[in-house]
Amino acid sequence: MSTTMVQATTAAESMTAASDAAVTTRLATTACDAARWEAFVAGHPESTSYHAWAWRTVFTNSFGWKPYYLIAEKDGEVCGVLPLIWQRNWPITSALVSMPHLKGGGILANSVEAAESLLAEAKQLALHLKTDCLELRHASLSESCLGLPARTDKVTFVVGLERDEEKMLKALDGKARNMVRKSMKQGLTVDFDSEGCLEEFYKIYCENMRELGSPAYARRFFEEIRQALPANTYICIVRHQGKAIAGAFLYGFRNTIEAVWASSLYKYLDMKPNMFMYWHMFRFASERGYDTFDFGRCSIDSGTYRFKKQWGARELPLYWHQWRADGAPLAQPKGASPAFRLASWMWQRLPLPLTNVLGPHLIKYLAGI
Question: Which of 32, 82, 178, 308 gives 157 a disulfide partner, CB atoms 3.0 to 4.6 angstroms apart?
Fold first, then answer.
């Protein structure tokens, strides 16, 4: 055989070996990893805002939790990613979650092989860290589920936006449209990203969370999000006679904008500030070219669930898949626990200044949020 034929045969064998190469999975830590991660997320049709690399610093700086970002590769190319945060809970438990305090994240992969490799590595990591649970939050029952059981008590709602304001108003459910019109007569005003808006939003948010019987995040959490993801975060503030009475924290990704957190002051609810605020958020999003408004996650049959459903929005299930090394059953929603309901009732009756101080310290130890 000639030298040329030997070289050609060797090259062909190398190409075959490369095409049959197995998927490898490892921790992503370097600046080069970050760039390749972001490029993969940007190009994948099923990626979400919660797959962004920048969330690493948000959770580390806000809660002190350690990130473990897994990247899958084949033939030298990225074929999957899985962002994981090690959440330390109370009293001595912990969970490996993608992504805690958010509605999504989970496995993002080009193939079942890559998804399986990421899941296998995540299980090994959970065992190494001795966590009680591995939780992967997905927006669909795709191959990423890989047979894991899932919590399905959370959903989100989405509604399409129109460029024509009148057409968008007419598309609303009749009852919602009437309440929007009624809110327009209350002397309310709206601003987006005005000076001091984060402080105004945070005060409303803290008071609302106390009324709901739940601890509030630290203000730093929202500051970190704004700093890490500045291009597509917005804050909406509704005022009455100059006083901020409702606010929302929004995040845009591709053609969708999501109201991730929204709150209003209870004593102003007769003015329908939430109806006013959401209508103006629709308008704001439409003007900036977004096609879909996402109301954010909520628990089925809760008050927020009913509020979001009234807009004629489409309900989309969320799947929070769990794996436990000991084979224990799925964790139940916190609201189903009598102890949690009692704690929530007691929290509602504490002075607001006290809950504002205690809340940020407590919430980072609560699992399943």
Answer: 308
Segments in the chain below pLDDT 70 = 1-20, 91-92, 141-145, 332-336
61 CA to centre of own chain: 17
Peptide bond before residue 100 is cis, with ω within 30 degrees of 0: no
Tokens 């929603």 sit at which residue?
Answer: 333
Identify the three-state secondary structure at position 256: strand
* Residue 271, both tokens: 């003015």
Q: What is the pLDDT of residue 83?
A: 98
Question: What is the C-alpha to C-alpha distance for residues 323 and 132, in angstroms, rounded to an integer?
Answer: 9
Q: How far is CA 264 from the centre of its chain?
A: 21
**CA–CA separation, 96 and 86 (whole Å):** 5
Helix 197-212 to helix 219-228 angle, to the nearest 10 degrees?
A: 130
pLDDT digit string, tens, across residues 227-237: 999 988 999 99
Q: What is the DSSP letter of 196?
A: T
324 vs 94: CA distance, rounded Å: 12
Whether omega before 184 lies within 30 degrees of 0, making that bond cis, reads: no
Q: What is the reported pLDDT for 291? A: 97
Among candidates 209, 201, 207, 190, which has minimal Cα distance to 278? 190
Residue 282 confidence (pLDDT): 97
Q: Which long-range contacts (CB under 8 A, 24 or more apart) does 239-243 make?
A: 239/188, 239/189, 239/190, 239/191, 240/186, 240/187, 240/188, 240/189, 240/268, 240/271, 240/273, 241/187
Distance CA 83, CA 216 (A): 24
**HEC per residue, 317-338:** ECEEEEECCCCCCCCCCHHHCH
- Helices 219-228 and 55-63: crossing angle in degrees, nearest 10, is 160
Q: In the numeric block, which tokens belong to residue 44?
A: 């994948």
The tokens of 103 are what?
A: 């509605």
pLDDT at res. 231: 87
HEC string for 131-155: CCEEEEEECCCCHHHCCCCEECCEE
Cα 305 from Cα 26, distance rounded (Å): 39
By C-alpha distance, which of 101, 105, 106 is closest to 62? 101
Condensed to tens digits (0 to 9), the pLDDT of residues 147-156 reads: 898 989 999 9
Q: Of 82, 99, 122, nearest to 323 (Cα)? A: 122
pTM comes to 0.89
